[in-house]
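Course assignment 3, question 2. Fill in each field.
Student: A.L.
Task: Predict the tertiary structure for the chain below.
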Amino acid sequence: MRKEKLRILQVIPDLKKGGAERLALDICNELSKRDAEVALVNFREDNEYAFLSSGIRIRREVIPAKFVPSLTGKPVSDLESYKKFVEQFKPDIIHSHLFEAEMVTRQILSPHVLYVTHLHDNMPQFRKFSFETLFSKKLLSNYFEKRLMLSQYRKCNNKFIAISRHTADYFRQSLPKSLQNITVLNNAIDVKRFQKNDSIKKLSAPYRLVTIGSLVDKKNQIFLVDVMKKLKEAGINIHLDILGDGPNRKKIQLRIDDCGMNENIAMRGSVDSVEDFLERAHIYVHAAIYEPFGLVLLEAMAAGLPCVALDGKGNRDIAENGKNGFLVETPDPQIFASRIAGLLKDEKLYHEMAEYSKLFAKKFSIEEYVDRLLLFYESNAAHKS
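Answer field:
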């Protein structure tokens, strides 16, 4: 049994809004309550989670480290400050999030450190080599970076945590057998933040929907405008709040204008207190065409909302059809709208789903998650030493 506290270093490029950043912060916040010394390293000052990180009881360092390999010349490298910090902090564990953090943290390896890679999505750099790779500079660059990382992973006997079975399967197909030490640890949330009360809201018009996510192509919010149009045409008094910002904002707004849905859809921009919108809503909707896991779905369930979502592959781990919502396989606005309408017309089913959603979300509490994470750390760190 260890006599000293585990020294854990979490590394993520910055704290811009995203599921990986949220989870890394939640992990740090919860670890700070445990018998561990925790530090968080970012490469940039960006922090869109000030409302979560302002009270964080760990050491946070912004170190402008970088490592960018080159196919033709010398890599772009700035690792000295990061190296000094690691030497000073003396971590037992270096837990990295997102590919940029992988590149930096695996260039300087310490023999007694446990290196953990958090697989938040199907990183394109790890895509299998194909004939197409030979004719694409980007794919060739990705493949070069993959070979470099595989070499470093072998040197440190790297361990991997995947956020969903779908992501784990992707890496089992992409990594050599010697490196397929992958543990699936589904994402978690601060359940208490979203479960403000135990009551289930009354199902009455106007019915309120909400969706949360960056306004980018893969999140596919524009699909929901067409869904809302179908619901309005069916005579349903409906409203949708779109939370998030990004490059597709103008395109989505144009579709809202073209469909005459301005009274029914509000684009709220980036919002800190998403729980306030979840508390007012009746159903959570999610149209991502690819979703590594679906942290926002769990948050909505914790708030007592049934979820209607497109099948994004990774969200299969948390969507139980007919129990906490519906996973729609076909990206057809009419089918998606019919699932929402069916829920709104069946108050008994709605309340059953709402109750089950709250119970289901409790299984993904950050407290239990960190319990499992610490067991993972302890067992692998003990083996490492």
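Instructor remarks: Residues 137-156 form the longest helix (20 residues). Residues 335 and 352 are 22 Å apart (CA to CA).
Grade: pending
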